[in-house]
Design goal:
Length: about 180
């Protein structure tokens, strides 16, 4: 995504995400869940659309607190599908709720979503895709790749000559620890 390093600087939405989030390691399960939901919602749309709706997503999904979202029933699903501030796609909403429940199960087994990711790291992109497809809903190759790149599990978020890349490497994301 080297073009992102050219597009993002000074952009009101892309800039802050590029400079302070994209490619940096993420350890909070709720923050990882947020990133997964946002990547799922980007499918078929531009990342700018998702970034512009991010605050509305945070409100609609109660700050992406996994246990809250996993407990959503028909009333919450209907609320989300009628919320014009977010992307109202039934498959994506259903995936978010389902995937929150999956993360609850992963936390019981591995301690956290983050620990589950670490347990499986490093994998090749294709193996990550297979794992995510077996584990979660609405997770194809692009969604999985962007999720893992954006959270530091796969390299490639920034070009080597991008000033942010040095800060990412200093933060020691998992892909820098590959053997």
């Amino acid at each position: 995504m080297s073009d992102y390093c050219d597009l993002a600087p000074a952009h009101p939405f892309h800039g802050p995400y590029h400079d302070h989030e994209y490619g940096f390691p993420v350890k909070s399960d709720d923050a990882l869940f947020e990133r997964l939901v946002l990547e799922i919602n980007q499918a078929g749309l531009s990342w700018l659309t998702v970034l512009k709706k991010r605050n509305a997503f945070r409100t609609a999904f109660e700050d992406f607190v996994i246990d809250r979202v996993a407990a959503y029933g028909d009333a919450e699903r209907a609320r989300l599908l009628s919320d014009a501030g977010i992307i109202r796609n039934r498959l994506k909403v259903d995936a978010a709720i389902h995937n929150a429940g999956v993360i609850q199960t992963l936390r019981q087994e591995y301690g956290s979503f983050h620990a589950w990711l670490d347990w499986h790291h490093p994998l090749a992109h294709a193996d990550w895709v297979k794992l995510f497809k077996r584990t979660f809903r609405f997770t194809g190759p692009e969604i999985v790749g962007e999720f893992l790149m954006s959270t530091g599990y796969l390299p490639g978020a920034h070009r080597d000559d991008c000033p942010v890349q040095r800060r990412i490497i200093a933060a020691a994301p998992p892909w820098t620890r590959e053997t």
